[in-house]
Amino acid sequence: MDTTKKIKVVQLGLGSIGTSCAKVVLNKNGFELVGAVDVAEDKVGTDLGDLLGLNRKLNLEVSADVQKVLAETEPDVVLHTTQSFVDVVFPQLETIIASGTNVVSSTEELLFPQLKYPELTRQLDTLAKKYEVTVLGTGVNPGFVMDTLAITMTSVCTNVRKVTAERYVDASKRQLSLQKKVGTGLTVEEFHNLINAGKLGHIGMKESVALIAYALHWELDTIEESIDPVVAEEDFITPYLKVKKGQVAGIKNVGHGWKDGQEVIALDLRMYVGAQNPHDAITIEGDPPVHLIIKDGIFGDLAAVAMLINVAPIVIAAEPGLKTMADLPIPRAFL
Fold it and tell me: Comparing C-alpha atoms, which of 259, 235, 257, 261 is closest to residue 246?
């Protein structure tokens, strides 16, 4: 890879993550934002500078036609930030890949798509190899804190018996979209109804468990997941919402991986307003044992954007195909 040449980027999806990605790319050494795509009627045709609130024109118009943008700009990579589910984004990925462009996606299920979509995974991998591009799903969680970081920490162990990770997040300090995602302000009944309808909650817990097992060459018997509300014990006000005592403050999402009748992976995610002692922690039961605590935790809103952008040069340089974070070199900041 020519490190003296700027990486040409098209941003596909201009929601909260996508707009943040676009802002960072605009000010990132070695990167050039050459196109922006979104289908929202209120965004199409808008100068990206206006959409990003930059108080200046970028002479870069938001388009709804991804094929046209890719053909005109010939980017090195697309930062794909649209939907969470592989079957939903599959046509989008097909279009990007067929243009001969690498993809870094925030689609949570794309972290380890073979878990739920073995046939679509095979098709994406075959297509990526045909057009000689690389496709990766990543982020901060899933994508780093509770899976890639844990995997990396096992490198100092001669033997690993169990991997445990926990992430406690004070949702009051996060953006409105995350507060809504974890059910803040709902009744317990509303929470369960939306969880059962697949319209609420963290996505990617099982994929994180599966990625750790894949990296360690563990054949798991089962992967289990539970999702429960965290109920507010007192009234709480965020910059966006009011939460009354007895309403949902957020979510507790736990994942387990079982091998030969033993729990070998345990992931515990809690995101709720007013969470005390927010932190990220990883424990490796192995030889030697390892325990890491990140005080206050990694701030997800910005960290997810950083990961998507920082892995782009690695993805561009990788062998073609559909990859996981465990297949690529160590992620790092590109400054």
Answer: 235
pTM higher than 0.70: yes
C-alpha torsion 112→215→304→289, nearest 10: 140
Domain ranges of the chain: 7-140+303-327, 148-297
> Is residue 142 within 8 Å of residue 208, measured between CB atoms?
yes
CATH of domain 7-140+303-327: 3.40.50.720
pLDDT tens by residue, the chain, 335 residues = 556 789 999 999 999 999 999 999 999 999 999 999 999 999 999 999 999 999 899 999 999 999 999 999 999 999 999 999 999 999 999 999 999 999 999 999 999 999 999 999 999 999 999 999 999 999 999 999 999 999 999 999 999 999 999 999 999 988 888 888 899 999 999 999 999 998 899 999 999 999 999 999 999 999 999 999 999 999 998 888 899 999 999 999 999 999 999 999 999 999 999 998 999 999 999 999 999 999 999 998 899 999 999 999 999 999 999 999 999 999 999 98
- Token pair belonging to 143: 């994508």
